[in-house]
Request: fold
Amino acid sequence: MRYQPVIGLEIHAELLTDSKVFCTCKNEFGGNENTRVCPRCSGLPGTLPLINKGAVRLAAKAGFATDCTINNYSAFDRKNYFYPDLPKAYQITQFEYPICTDGHITVIGGKDIRINRIHIEEDAGKLVHDDYEGISMADYNRCGVPLIEIVTEPDFRTIEEVQDFVEQIALRLKYAGVCDARMEQGSMRVDVNISIMPAGSSEFGTRAEIKNLNSLKAIGRAIEYEIKRQSEILDNGGTVVQETRRYNDNHGDTKALRSKEEAHDYRYFPEPDIPPVLLSDEDIAEIKNSMPEMPQTRFNRYTQEYKLPYDDAKLIISSKEFSDFYDEAVKINPDYKQISNLMLVELNRNLNDSEKTISDVTFSPADLAELVKMSSDGIVSKNAAKDILKIMFTNGGKPQDIAKEHGFIMDNDTSGIEEIINKVLSENPESVESFKNGNQKIFGFLMGQVIRLAGNGANPKLAKDLLTEKLK
Ligand SMILES: [Zn+2]
Reply:
């Protein structure tokens, strides 16, 4: 590689509050245009913003989820710019005093990515362009939706590090209940700042910013394209211009949008209508105590304490609900591996086949724990456990009842199965003769006859041992 890319991220995440950040309009996705607006969020003169405490709390939680310091004092500023999706002509944000600072996340390869800050701000509206009519329309539903912006240092050097970081942020925000991180719906959006420098150099080049990437794949392709574009400019003796660019997913390329503004272009000044946000040490401790266990902690517990394979642990933590279900089940029956297997293979198969998610499951983690115990205690066979799970999934019911009702309880009484074996052997003298003359395949046939007569409840291992004994 002749050039070394240097990458930093700005991630916008919409907070899961009930209402908007400075008014009481509902904070929701979708619906008809301009149905969730009021004088405050549409910027009418004379209205006053009122800070949503829930948004402050969630921003602090995002800080805890990323090992930031939560500041006792933070304050809002006005960022002035004119654009039709911003009716006030300024955005309320935190410039000088953000709520969280100095965090970090460890990414693939064990490298620490530093987080400079997390600040609270309001989202802008949305312009809808109708190319056919040649008009643009403004939808202000998104105006005033609470956002956090997570700003990293330019610590990334590869696409894999960036993608791992974004994946981890999305998962942590979901676990903490801060943001649903639905990138395809825009509730989490990533801006990539990227420059290149000659390999071995330590002096950063001029960076371009690519706005609003909404999938891991788009992030990867946009970075790849930018590295190629900037390399060609430098190879031809040109200079990279500092600018904001838009990524086009259909073409896989980026186009210049506008020359990059500097902070002073925005004429930031302290927001006079909102008092500073003051959090006491007690407030901060209380928010910290309300944090759920983070995915990385769970991953470590699963792999180190429970000895699950890395891939299995990663799959379980990839959904908080799935992981919660697993945790509840192993609390009752600490058969970590078997419960993980049954959930990852059989339960997931049932979920996929029915296009449902774990939150649709009607049986309890305790039922699943019980089922695994029945299987390991030899009350039902492994195969029967799969059938019972399917019935629990489709019709509900307790594993014990289903096993009894469908005859899945294994008969561990040797006399019953011995009787059946004797019957099968006496009815098939030619097969027995053939087996004794060396035809090993006949064993499977005889076994099949035994199981057929014994039904669901037969213990296959017991039957096999007895039949082997009898044929000696
Ligand atoms: Zn409003």
Remarks:
- The chain is about 40% helix and 20% strand.
- The mean pLDDT is 93.
